[in-house]
Design brief:
With 221 residues, the protein is an alpha+beta fold. The chain folds into two domains: 90 residues, no CATH class; 113 residues, Four Helix Bundle (Hemerythrin (Met), subunit A), CATH 1.20.120. It contains five helices and eight strands.
Length: 221
């Protein structure tokens, strides 16, 4: 295979990607780029890898972008023109509208660690691991609240007995538990939409139990 590298061909160009800090699609300037062109002579296949350091023009956040394409993966436009299919990856991984809880430092230590790992799995579209992480977060909350019961179902019900949760909120948490069980016991990946809803529920729970009470302590009496 023959390889050729070029530097900064794309420097100064603009990329429209999700900014992990702005939490929306913003313009990013290419600060530095390295392009790898490869040619598999024996198979007559060519391809390109673009490696770019990019900077958000809104908040100055720095990210890393990789864009790959090859001569075997393409389509045609309305006029029969050749359109290569490009695969774009942005690091650190991010999804629009899914930034981490800002005041997660209020969370108990074990819960915070599991939360961050689950969030990373969600950002990376590792849906089975994200589902397992969501279930682990519920387990961690039950452990923190010293619930009783031989399984997670009974532990969640004990949160109601301890007045940590209302009955309605416990029913919602049970639905989230079912999703986690599918990932942990049946090795079934939940859909992106299901995970987004489940993680919303978990974040709301963590804010209600740990973050909001800590913030309330700052209010003057």
């Amino acid at each position: 295979m023959e390889k050729t590298f070029t530097e900064n061909t794309n420097k100064g160009q603009m990329r429209k990607v999700v900014c992990s800090r702005c939490n929306s699609y913003t313009n990013h300037k290419v600060c530095h780029s390295t392009e790898l062109f490869w040619d598999s002579v024996e198979n007559d296949i060519q391809g390109k890898h673009e490696y770019e350091v990019i900077q958000c023009l809104g908040c100055d956040e720095i990210s890393f972008r990789i864009c790959t394409s090859n001569s075997e993966d393409y389509s045609y436009d309305d006029k029969g023109g050749y359109i290569p299919h490009e695969v774009e990856e942005i690091y650190p991984n991010r999804l629009k509208g899914r930034t981490e809880l800002r005041e997660q430092y209020f969370l108990p230590e074990k819960i915070r660690f599991i939360y961050k790992e689950t969030h990373t799995a969600l950002m990376s579209r590792l849906n089975i691991l994200a589902g397992v992480g969501i279930r682990a977060l519920i387990e961690a909350v039950c452990l923190e609240e010293k619930t009783e019961g031989r399984n997670l179902e009974k532990k969640i019900n004990d949160l109601v007995v301890k007045t940590v949760l209302t009955k309605n909120n416990a029913e919602i948490l049970h639905k989230t538990r079912f999703l986690g069980n599918r990932s942990a016991h049946k090795v079934e990946a939940a859909s992106n939409e299901e995970l987004a809803i489940a993680f919303d529920i978990i974040e709301n729970l963590l804010e209600t139990l740990y973050i909001i009470p800590k913030k309330a302590e700052r209010l003057k009496k």
